[in-house]
Amino acid sequence: MYIALYIIVGLVALVLLLALIAPKKYHVSRSIQIARPQSEVFTYLKSLKKMDDWSPWARRDPNMQKKFTGTDGEVGCVSYWNGNKEVGEGEQEITKIVPEERIESELRFLKPWASTSDCYLQIDKGSTEETSTVTWGFSGKNKFPMSIMAMFLSMDKMVGKDFEQGLSSLKTQLEN
């Protein structure tokens, strides 16, 4: 009887300790140089509809259902998607635009699990007037019990390769 009680108390203490030391936030970003002027890259990137041309997730389910509300490229525009198990269901809403520099969005994932993240595209001048640096990133909070899982699963490893693939596709799209 006492052994079972000690085991239960030990497990509870372990979970509490892990919850205390587990990462509470995550941030993933990747950057790429594109041989196009900053204004041209910005104009292209602020369109949620054009995101399907370079997004790695659009390629994983070419039959995904898409719906847009609001004016594309403006604050308040929402892109809704419902796809296969790889892409899930969710929506992206443009929340802030800094002309020629940055587009911020809120990602609301509905399936396979509910979560919310902040996403951004930062466009900076490159080494010349004819080049740009694009940084694609997202961040969010790890809520319990996901925070404990984050100790063993790297969000950077899970999403970083997708960002690299998407940015490479974006580069190809804009430079050709």
Any overview of this molecule?
The chain crosses the membrane at residues 6-23. By secondary structure, the protein is an alpha+beta fold. The chain has one domain: 2-Layer Sandwich (Alpha-D-Glucose-1,6-Bisphosphate, Chain A, domain 4), CATH 3.30.530.20. It has five helices and seven strands, in the order H-E-H-H-E-E-E-E-E-E-H-H. It starts with a helix and ends with a helix.
Q: What is the number of beta strands? A: 7
Total DSSP helices: 5
Radius of gyration: 20 Å
What is the CATH class designation?
Alpha Beta
CATH homology group: START domain
One letter per element, helices H and strands E, the order comes to HEHHEEEEEEHH
- Helical residues, percent: 25-40%
Biggest sheet strand order reads 1-7-6-5-4-3-2
Number of domains: 1
CATH topology: Alpha-D-Glucose-1,6-Bisphosphate, Chain A, domain 4
- Overall average residue pLDDT: 85
Shape: elongated
Tags for this entry?
single chain, 176 residues, alpha+beta, Alpha-D-Glucose-1,6-Bisphosphate, Chain A, domain 4, seven-stranded antiparallel sheet, elongated, Polyketide cyclase, START-like_dom_sf, transmembrane helix, transmembrane
